[in-house]
Amino acid sequence: MSKPKHPRTLAETEAQAITRNIRVSPRKLNLVAGLIRNKPASQAIATLTFSKRRIAQQVKKTLESAIANAENNHQLDVDQLVVKTAEVGKSIVMRRFHARGRGRSARVEKFFSHLKIVVAERAVEPEAASTEQKAA
Questions:
Q1: What is the structure's pLDDT at 126?
Q2: Is the pLDDT of residue 134 over 80?
Q3: DSSP class per residue in the chain
Q4: What was the pLDDT predicted at 8?
Q5: What pTM value is reported for the model?
């Protein structure tokens, strides 16, 4: 007696990876996630590899995990993968205090984020193939 199997929410040509509680604010993480949205997976990895932002390496690990899930769990072609979505969400807020002058205190908020990356297998574009044949 176990729970019934949860239905798959993604299409058959999609795979995902989720990283939770990343120690960076959602605004900063969304800037990096915006760099890879709707790009081919290989180009997205190259962009993250040479990004100067600290959090880019963790986003790269999540993207590589999504690619590995697509290849190993769903038998998708790695060369045809595109970053379909890169969603950033709010997580917990760790609150600390900072001592101020005259016996007062100020709140320091340390934000955490969630990241969900969905990669999809791009369909072979017949238009591109037909334009190559016309040019030849």
A1: 59
A2: no
A3: --PPPPPP-S-TTEEEEEEEEESS-HHHHHHHHHHHTTSBHHHHHHHHHT--STTHHHHHHHHHHHHHHHHHTT---GGGEEEEEEEEEEEEEEEEEEE-GGG-EEEEEEEEEEEEEEEEEPPP-HHHHHHHHHH-
A4: 87
A5: 0.86
